[in-house]
Design goal:
This is Glycoprotein. The protein is α/β, with parallel strands linked by helices. It is built from 21 helices and 33 strands. Helices cover 31% and strands 24% of the residues.
Length: 805
């Protein structure tokens, strides 16, 4: 039994041994004012020692330090007693570590042993005692620098790891550090030191030590930022396209997301405000941003605007429904998005955040086209824009060899990948060739791993992307939302604060900022990120670089880079069972689509009718929500299992829908016995098509050898109608026969059920021919005999008794 699971101790002699044991355990912790006692990280220590207090960061002011912000850093937070006993004498203090000196350290510095945070402030008393389950809030303030008081002692711009440490005394234990919380503090410039006056002579050491310190803006970093608008698949699976029927959604969560205060509403609102002419006066943020829009989201929202229903059971898409209430919200959101898209860059994401590795494994031309070529053609007419073409942003941020080959075959393009997606990792912002030849190259623009990972952790549902190395993965649940936001701000600004060397900013040519495609940031978090990027642009640390510029530029090296596809990406990806299910149904859709007929008189085309089924299979291979859990064993948790189940359900529903389509075209059984008037009378049949589009079919006949059937060739059946078929037949037998009829597509796939017909002919067939021949022979014999007797003048026996008149 662990310490945390034991009941509260009673003050009795029987507990002396346990109390001594606890004291020994606590002695391994860091006491007030002591340094580290071992090389283990605080994460390791936390898993080995019982937890009594939980500390979380609620807010940091300022979120990013500039020359115009306050000269002090203020942290608000909460301390909660999560242990099994009271804790007394609770105090907190603020500490910092040296500035981050590498991109990798943006993550690893947050896992340092607390002793590495060697610049410390004074302890501030929080509470005399906290009982089990109680909590209290605190506020810490410490100057950035000061000549008279204790401070954080920050003398130059940079990104600094910060730690809030809480100490206390649990019952039956000694005073110890019981928890801490970490975050990054971006310092873009230093304001005038606290307490400094203008009385110091200009140029003196005193004045220099307290004067504002601006950043180095001699070589601004080109910045491009993608602003994703995507959602998990919501349309019910297995419902083909139609003209008048309302779409069906599996839930109504999207209505809340598009409404006031919802996730997608707030992401759009943040982008709208940040790029307003009165806010972004020079248009620099607008020029650097590009809306990255999931076409599946636009399809769903557009259909919602026309009215929709929600199924009562997502596993039964054709079952009972109720009216959805998000039509007005969808209409308003689309109108605002259209207005915003008119004045800034737009790209279409791969459909439904599909797993490109799984897509390449299925290897179907129609499915690939729906996933990668059709999205721009969906986004552009809905928003009335011309999106940037020849650019692909995989949701995983990675490509394996097969998916790279798939993109390469589509034509010259640029894909956006994590910097460690290629071997011999080049600097982020570089553009390299990952596959290609002289005429058709697939290039990759690289983004920083740490910055993208930090942005993915922002919001209500933090996630750890597949490209994050194992040594940089940790449980995001231990950090508060405010702390994770600070980490993202630090990671986004870090590259712009690096020292210049000979006029070239070290390790960098440009910066590509990429949040996750399905981002769970709220309005305030999104606005803070945009405000920080805007500050970088206004301060001169960064300069806008349109995405189209990245797409158009040539790679920095002519060599083809080798791709890296880590095992984590395979674990995070779509399971093979789903791929096999998608592959099986895709071929059936292809075969049925090839036999459907486009009729100018029918508003619904075959492609419109079948497109939702292709899209459903892409939704089954969506990476949405598969990395929601932040720990290193994310795929062992429940999120992936739930998504796997949803994917199998979607494939199953599509299978049922395709089965029903194939069964909707059939031969109607005539009933009874079919009687032919003669041996060459045609067979009359009726073929029925219950699909809303026309179809070309072939009639297959299984008849006895005595019946010769003429092939009538391909036949077109009208939408939701029937057609009579005349089948020429020649029967050489008068017996009753059973003939089987069925319909197939032109490539041989069975349609509907086989129908058996009992046929009876009035012809005598071979027997009649024998009788007729025998009678003819007898007639000739009798006539010849009479002529013989008459020629010889002999009376014929047949004339005996005959009297001539």
């Amino acid at each position: 039994m662990t310490m945390a699971s034991r009941p509260a101790w009673r003050r009795s002699g029987a507990t002396i041994l346990s109390a001594l044991t606890l004291v020994l355990m606590l002695s391994s912790a860091v006491l007030i004012g002591t340094g580290p006692v071992s090389a283990q990280t605080d994460t390791q220590a936390a898993t080995q020692n019982p937890q009594f207090l939980k500390l979380s960061i609620d807010g940091v002011t300022p979120t990013a330090v500039t020359t115009t912000t306050e000269p002090t850093v203020t942290v608000t937070g909460t301390v909660a007693n999560v242990g099994d006993r009271p804790v007394a004498d609770i105090a907190v203090r603020l500490q910092r570590a040296p500035a981050v000196d590498s991109s990798e350290a943006l993550r690893t510095s947050l896992d340092l042993y607390q002793g590495e945070f060697d610049t410390v402030g004074p302890f501030v008393h929080v509470a005399s005692n906290l009982q089990q389950g109680e909590q209290t809030q605190f506020t810490l303030s410490l100057p950035l620098r000061s000549q008279t008081d204790r401070s954080l002692d920050i003398a130059e711009p940079g990104v600094y790891p910060m730690l809030v440490n809480v100490n206390g005394t649990p019952d039956y234990g000694g005073e110890a550090r019981l928890d801490d919380a970490r975050f990054l503090l971006p310092v873009l410039g230093l304001p005038q030191a606290e307490g400094a006056t203008d009385a110091a002579p200009q140029g003196s050491d005193s004045a220099s030590a307290t004067a504002p310190v601006p950043p180095d803006t001699s070589n601004p970093v080109p910045v491009t930022m993608l602003w994703p608008l995507a959602d998990k698949p919501r349309l019910a699976a297995g419902i083909p396209g139609s003209i008048n029927e309302k779409v069906r959604l599996v839930d109504d969560d999207l209505a809340r997301s598009l409404s006031q205060g919802g996730r997608l509403h707030e992401l759009l609102a943040a982008a709208e405000f940040a790029t307003e002419p009165d806010v972004d006066r020079d248009g620099e943020l607008t020029d650097s941003m590009c809306l990255a829009i999931d076409p599946d989201l636009l399809i769903t929202a557009s259909n919602m605007a026309r009215g929709y229903v929600v199924v009562d059971n997502p596993a039964n898409p054709t079952g009972p429904t109720h009216e959805g209430d998000g039509s007005d919200a969808a209409t308003a959101w689309l109108q605002r998005l259209e207005s915003l898209a008119q004045r800034m860059c737009v790209i279409a994401l791969p459909f439904a955040q599909v797993d490109l590795a799984a897509l390449s494994t299925v290897d179907d031309e129609s499915l690939t086209s729906s996933a990668l070529l059709a999205p721009a053609d969906i986004v552009d007419p809905i928003l009335g824009v011309t999106s940037v073409r020849n650019v692909t942003w995989p949701d995983a941020g990675l490509l394996d060899e097969n998916s790279a080959q798939m993109l390469h075959e589509l034509g010259p393009a640029t894909t956006l990948l994590a910097a460690n997606a290629v071997e011999a990792t080049p600097a982020p912002g570089r553009k390299v060739t990952v596959m290609g030849d002289d005429e058709n190259a697939l290039d990759a623009a690289l983004f920083d791993v740490s910055a993208a990972a930090a942005l993915a952790a922002v919001g209500s549902t933090p996630q750890t992307p597949s490209y994050v190395p194992e040594q940089a993965r940790y449980d995001l649940d231990r950090d508060s939302r405010a702390a994770r936001l600070q980490d993202a701000l630090g990671a986004v600004t870090w590259r712009t604060l690096q020292k210049t060397d000979g006029g070239n900013r070290t390790g960098d040519r440009s910066m590509l900022i990429v949040p996750p495609q399905q981002w769970s940031a709220d309005g305030d978090e999104a606005a803070t990120v945009l405000s920080t990027v805007s500050t970088l642009l206004r301060s001169g640390l960064a300069t806008p670089q349109p995405l189209a510029t990245i797409v158009a530029e040539q790679p920095t090296t002519p060599d083809v880079a080798d791709l890296v596809y880590p095992q984590r990406a395979i674990l995070d990806g779509i399971p093979e069972s789903v791929e096999l299910g998608v592959e099986a149904q895709t071929s059936r859709i292809d075969e049925l689509l090839a036999t459907l007929v486009e009729d100018p008189q029918v508003p619904l085309t075959p492609k419109q009718f079948m497109a939702p089924l292709y899209e459903d299979l892409l939704r089954a291979m969506s990476l949405s929500n598969r990395r929601d859990k932040g720990s290193s064993d994310a795929m062992d948790g429940g999120a992936a299992g739930a998504m796997d189940q949803a994917a199998h359900t979607r494939v199953s529903n599509v299978t049922t829908a395709i089965d029903n389509m194939y069964q909707a075209v059939t031969i109607l059984a005539p009933g009874g016995v079919y009687t032919l008037a003669s041996e060459q009378s045609p067979l009359l049949l009726v073929a029925r098509n219950d699909l809303p589009v026309g179809i070309t079919v072939e009639l297959q006949v299984d008849a006895p050898e005595e019946m010769q059937i003429t092939d009538i060739g391909p036949q077109q059946l009208p939408p939701r109608g029937s057609r009579s078929l005349q089948v020429p037949a020649e029967i050489s037998d008068s017996r009753t026969m059973v003939v089987s009829f069925s319909l197939t597509t032109e490539n041989g796939q069975n349609l509907g059920e086989q129908t058996s017909v009992t046929v009876r002919s009035n012809a005598y067939g071979q027997a009649l021919a024998i009788i007729t021949a025998g009678a003819g022979v007898l007639l000739l014999f009798l006539a010849g005999r009479r002529l013989w007797h008459r020629f010889r003048g002999q009376p014929d026996r047949a004339d005996e008794g005959y009297q001539r008149p």
